[in-house]
Design brief:
alpha/beta; Spore Coat Polysaccharide Biosynthesis Protein SpsA, Chain A; 2 domains; 12 strands; globular
């Protein structure tokens, strides 16, 4: 039986990678690109309120807001919520607002109980919105001038209640690029974004960098109140809309949106500490299952190249080839270097470690620390959809 086990594993991982590659490559190509949308302009351009929350973003918010102010959309307002920053964020935003009447700044001094800082800030900003649509974004996202116009025209033409787009993620160094590509592939496999428009499928999701929602629908669903203690509020915003039968779509945003995700691999690992475990709805068994699957499908095929021979070696070599080919193909949709995909197993190992670490740290602390505030795990778990 022992010699049969490597062969059985070879058949399993080779078949698994062939199926996954077929699904993801086909699925990625089914997603529209925000930069290429070409819907006809609506008879009347609806007003859009752009809302973002910023905490200690003084180093980045000025450059990002400059691209927001350069949007070529005909009727918009920008609402920036300074969430208890203790750096230059508030001063930078106030200076920009002094030169641009369409920009208003809300300063939050205290956080009410039962809310995450970000969800409270977005809820507060959205309450002041006067637009027919609200675009939720982040304080470090850079926009191409036509991004909002293309998105609204498409949403109006197709009757969408939520339109979201994944930006090109970039950062310094190739090590971070390898990890970003692995994260992107895991994100795609987990969410199945091409299935989001199907109202009969449970696939759902939104992206914090670009989430365009119809204001009436958003407010009818309670705004961000149902998500008040969700570190993964963007993903769950998509679930909230989907649960209520609203039409949703996720797009590739590369070419229209960019964001510096993290400054280093270490910063990425630390940044995922607050929401890596949340993405599993705080289920330890799911984290364990994911870690086991990663070891089997990403690491074992490479190890098997030095431990097996003959047909078994050939199966594992084929699995590795498909894996790396898929990794390279994924970069076409994330804006990364194609060869980052050749290091997909390494990036996946780092990403898997970040999720396991998020669980361990959260359980050890009994909660998470985000934006300088501690949130008990029992309260986080209670906020389910």
């Amino acid at each position: 039986m022992a010699p049969f086990l490597p062969l059985a594993l070879g058949i399993l991982v080779a078949a698994g990678w062939l199926v996954l590659a077929g699904v993801l490559m086909r699925g990625n190509r089914r997603l529209r690109r925000l930069a290429a949308l070409g819907a006809a302009p609506p008879a009347r351009w609806p007003r859009v309120s752009i809302v973002f929350a910023a905490r200690n973003e003084g180093h980045a918010v000025g450059a990002a807001v400059t691209t927001m102010l350069a949007l070529d959309y005909p009727d918009w307002e920008l609402i920036a919520v300074n969430d208890r920053s203790d750096d230059s964020t508030g001063a930078v935003l106030d200076a920009l607002a002094g030169c641009e009447p369409r920009l208003s700044v809300v300063h939050v001094g205290t956080l009410p109980p039962g809310w995450l800082g970000k969800t409270h800030a977005l809820h507060l900003g959205a309450a002041r919105a006067s637009g027919d649509f609200i675009l939720f974004t982040d304080a470090d996202v850079h926009f191409r001038p036509d991004a909002l116009r293309r998105a609204v025209a498409h949403a109006e033409a197709t009757g969408l209640a939520l339109l979201t787009a994944v930006p090109a993620l970039h950062g310094p160094g190739h090590a971070l690029g390898v990890c970003v590509n692995a994260f992107s592939l895991a994100f795609t496999a987990w969410l199945r974004p091409w299935r989001i428009p199907d109202l009969h499928c449970d696939a759902h999701g939104s992206v914090g960098a670009f989430g365009l929602v119809r204001t009436a629908t958003y407010r009818a669903l309670g705004g961000h109140a149902p998500l008040r203690l969700r570190p993964d509020d963007d993903i769950k915003l998509g679930l909230l809309f989907k649960q209520h039968g609203a039409r949703c779509e996720l797009l590739h945003g590369s070419g229209a949106l960019t964001v510096a995700w993290y400054g280093s691999v270490g910063a990425m690992v630390r940044g995922l500490e607050k929401n890596g475990y949340a993405a599993t709805d705080y289920r330890p068994w799911l984290v364990g299952l994911g870690a086991a699957g990663q070891a089997l499908f990403f690491l074992w095929p490479i190890a098997a190249l030095g431990l097996t021979h003959g047909a078994t070696w050939g199966l594992h070599a084929g699995a590795v080839a498909v894996m790396l080919g898929l990794g390279c193909d994924q970069t076409r949709f994330t804006g990364g270097r194609w060869w980052h995909g050749l290091f997909l197993p390494l990036g996946a190992a780092v990403f898997g470690y970040a999720v396991v670490r998020s669980m361990v740290v959260t359980l050890r602390r009994g909660g998470i620390v985000w934006r300088g505030t501690f949130y008990p795990l029992r309260e986080l778990r209670a906020n389910r959809l």
